[in-house]
Write a structure and sequence with these properties.
Elements: E1 4-6, E2 9-11, E3 15-18, H1 25-35, E4 39-43, H2 58-61, E5 68-72, H3 79-92, E6 98-101, H4 114-126, E7 130-135, H5 139-148, E8 152-155, H6 169-178, E9 184-186, H7 192-201, E10 205-208, H8 210-213, H9 218-238
Helix pairs in contact: 1-9, 3-4, 4-5, 5-6, 7-9
Amino acid sequence: MDKLTIAGKQYGSRLLVGTGKYKDFDETRRAVEASGAQIITVAIRRTNLGQDASQPSLLDALPPSKYTYLPNTAGCYSAEDAIRTLRLARELLDGHDLVKLEVLGDPKTLYPNVVETLRAAEVLVKDGFKVMVYTSDDPIIAKQLEEIGCVAVMPLASLIGSGMGILNPWNLQIIIDNARVPVVVDAGVGTASDATIAMELGCDAVLMNTAIAQARDPILMASAMQLAVHAGRAAYLAGRMPKKIYTASPSSPTSGVIGT
């Protein structure tokens, strides 16, 4: 399978996974391993990366030598908070510059505040960060974020943690068709078929957390998601047959049939 390229680096997996909502770091580790993911997101405000030396650190369960960490700004509601959080992440991770920016609009829906997101993206890009950015499925905003210099745009499929799947494939298609950077579906994936649909549309990757962490069997679901992303990408590259309304086309040839 072809590789995913983000900010000049190649990855064998097109599935990105979060590290929150698991019962402990051991379950997190087992789920990540089952997913085959190479990029993992971590909420700087909620996860111990060494800030508290007396508590277990995610860095021990998932060593940065094996995984690409993607610090995110989950829980930030202003550009200033997001910028401050990612500057802290860069210090904690020894100058790491690949980050996920998300600025939320309200605590009930966790819908992105695109005005604050644009403000933060401008500052972070100028500050040398390689910004992957969570956004709405508005094609105009996605293009503006790309033009600012973000290395990937990450439109939602539906609300964070909703599990509702892709509610507006048409907007996603417009974003994909016009993007010159990777498009990563982020938020709303509920099950394997949602991930496959995203990849069949032409998305470069899928990021998820709740769909795995809150499954009845997170380890098995992580494995299913790996297969789903792989299948969706293969189907996209293969090119599906044209859809035909009221036009029958039998699988078996009709010429040379015995008795005709």
